């Protein structure tokens, strides 16, 4: 029954990672759905604005087309009267028609810029034109063909006028005349052909009188008048804004030549185009909504992009996943270090305990010869001291995290002499000689138990990893407001790239791992923590100063003489 919980515990990290991945996947899915919804809203908004632009283009086209011909009605007033009084035949001739039309020039701005007057007779398909630079053979043929084609195009029958004296809309018979307007290109430039068409009782065209004017003039007047007087967009959308301030209008011929362009400029993000019928010239009306004003046409304004938020959410999710994976790896590493620490401590405890128990039992049973009893007691004392040092290191390693030092004024040389004397039996057991070079008179504020632990750990480290018969030197000296403690051995030394890492908890050098010399990896970590809590520094260097291999190690501890800033005081 115990195997199931153990197996479940072993699977817990994998289950947790799986749940995290599922959570991250759901977060990514929600982020994508939010982004997709935002994108769909943005697309719908853009489509709505383009539909507004299309509606404006449709309204502008219809209004401009409706206004284009009536604005020339007054110019043909005398022509219409002459035909009404004298009949459509014989034709007036282009020059006579020009005289009658020019006579109305003061009453109609539509004659500004007129370049050519013409007459087209349908019986012989002939054309007569006034003198003009525009009256080339090619242009006259183009005017004739355009007028004839437009007049003969199928059209719905016009209802008779109930009141002949009332104003007449474009395209409705005036006695026997129709007013029409045609757009065409002459000499590579767009022109408006404004004309009065005479028909017989059956609607068959007889003769047309008209004039050609650059299309930009009437189109510009018409578009401006429409924008100023008609609601191209509903007032509920514009909400008091001037239409010409939010709409950019461009009118072009079918060939793409611009005949009118408004002062407002806008890109084609929210744009639409509508065209007049080909028989009316096929002008294209392009309307674009200024993006700067687009937000005022949409209730609530334009939706802002959610991409930054989505990316931020994704980055946070990925960051959390990375952090959690790092924590799991760190947890596994700490578990490995814990197992190694427990194994090292067990080894460190088992060996001296086994010797103490064995010798104690032999002494208790009286099986140790008298001449060996003194040696056995020394061994018991040495191993007990080792256990005491190890336990102190473990306790200091645990409690040093919390601080709480109690520094007192201490004679450093006297204190270290006492510590070294207590360690000498262990050193002698390894054949190590301890030499002290202590500067007398140094009095500093230190925590005595902490200082004892620092010195003992450094000495134990020197004895444990150094060769038998070596000399270990303990030196102290004062310099200004600090004093230093140095422990120098004749061991293999510490490589330069390892000199900082050896103070890391649980760390053991690769050359010592699995060797005959045991260790817990916390001795030097305890030294650094106790020294840091005193406001000091500790480092290691080569004993001879040149860093050569096998030159020994020199551990240097620098502590303040005044402990005013010591942790816990």
Outline, from the CA principal axes? rod-shaped
**Quick one: biggest sheet?**
5 strands, antiparallel
- Spatial gap, N to C terminus: 53 Å
Strand content: 15-25%
Query: What is the overall pLDDT average?
Result: 77
Q: pLDDT below 50 for ≥5 consecutive residues: which ranges?
A: 158-162, 168-176
Class per helix and strand makeup:
alpha+beta
How would you characterize the overall build of this protein?
- The chain is an alpha+beta fold and 569 residues long.
- Helices cover 47% and strands 19% of the residues.
- The strands form four sheets. It has a five-stranded antiparallel β-sheet with strand order 2-1-5-4-3, with helices on both faces.
- α1 (3-68) crosses α5 (216-229) and α10 crosses α12 (448-465).
- The model is unreliable at 158-162 and 168-176 (pLDDT under 50).
Q: Quick recap of the structure?
A:
The protein has 569 residues and is an alpha+beta fold. The chain contains 13 helices and 16 strands.
């Amino acid at each position: 029954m115990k195997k199931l919980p153990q197996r479940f515990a072993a699977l817990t990290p994998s289950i947790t990672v799986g749940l995290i991945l599922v959570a991250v996947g759901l977060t990514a899915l929600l982020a994508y759905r939010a982004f997709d919804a935002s994108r769909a809203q943005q697309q719908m908004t853009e489509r709505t604005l383009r539909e507004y632009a299309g509606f404006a283009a449709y309204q502008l086209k219809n209004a401009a087309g409706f206004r284009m011909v009536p604005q020339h009605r007054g110019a043909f007033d005398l022509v219409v009267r002459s035909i009404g009084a004298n009949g459509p035949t014989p034709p007036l001739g282009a020059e006579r028609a020009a005289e009658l039309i020019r006579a109305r020039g003061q009453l109609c701005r539509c004659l500004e810029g007129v370049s050519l007057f013409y007459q087209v007779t349908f019986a012989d398909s002939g054309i007569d034109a006034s003198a003009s630079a525009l009256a080339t053979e090619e242009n006259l043929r183009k005017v004739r063909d355009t007028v004839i084609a437009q007049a003969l195009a199928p059209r719905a029958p016009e209802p008779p006028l109930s009141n002949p004296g009332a104003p007449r809309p474009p395209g409705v018979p005036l006695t026997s005349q129709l007013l029409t307007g045609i757009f065409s290109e002459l000499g590579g430039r767009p022109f408006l052909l404004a004309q009065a068409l005479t028909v017989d009782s059956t609607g068959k065209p007889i003769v047309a009188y008209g004039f050609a004017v650059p299309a930009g003039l009437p189109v510009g007047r018409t578009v401006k008048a429409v924008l100023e007087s008609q609601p191209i967009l509903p007032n509920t959308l514009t909400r008091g804004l001037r239409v010409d301030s939010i709409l950019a209008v461009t009118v072009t011929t079918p060939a793409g030549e611009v005949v009118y362009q408004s002062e407002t400029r806008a890109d084609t993000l929210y744009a639409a185009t509508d065209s007049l019928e080909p028989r009316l010239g096929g002008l294209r009306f392009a309307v674009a909504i200024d993006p700067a004003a687009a937000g005022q046409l949409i209730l609530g304004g334009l939706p802002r992009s959610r991409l930054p938020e989505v990316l931020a959410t994704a980055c946070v999710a990925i960051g959390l996943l990375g952090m959690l994976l790092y924590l799991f790896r760190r947890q596994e590493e700490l578990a490995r270090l814990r197992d190694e620490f427990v194994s090292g401590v067990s080894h460190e405890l088992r060996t001296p305990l086994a010797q103490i128990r064995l010798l104690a039992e032999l002494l208790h049973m009286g099986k140790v010869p008298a001449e060996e009893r003194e040696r056995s007691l020394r061994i018991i004392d040495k191993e007990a001291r080792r256990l005491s040092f190890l336990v102190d290191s473990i306790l200091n390693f645990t409690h040093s995290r919390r601080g709480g030092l109690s520094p007192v004024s201490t004679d450093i040389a006297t204190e270290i002499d006492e510590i070294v004397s207590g360690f000498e039996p262990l050193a002698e057991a390894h054949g190590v000689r301890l030499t002290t070079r202590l500067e007398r008179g140094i009095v500093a504020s230190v925590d005595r138990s902490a200082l004892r632990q620092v010195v003992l750990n450094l000495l134990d480290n020197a004895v444990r990893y150094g060769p038998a018969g070596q000399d270990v030197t303990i030196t102290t000296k004062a310099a200004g407001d600090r004093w230093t403690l140095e422990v120098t051995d004749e061991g293999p030394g510490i490589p330069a790239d390892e000199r900082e890492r050896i103070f890391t908890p649980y760390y053991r050098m690769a050359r010592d791992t699995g060797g005959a010399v045991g260790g817990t990896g916390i001795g030097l970590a305890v030294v650094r923590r106790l020294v840091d809590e005193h406001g000091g520094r500790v480092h290691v260097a080569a004993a001879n100063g040149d860093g050569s291999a096998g030159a020994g190690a020199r551990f240097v501890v620098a502590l303040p003489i005044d402990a005013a800033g010591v942790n816990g005081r």
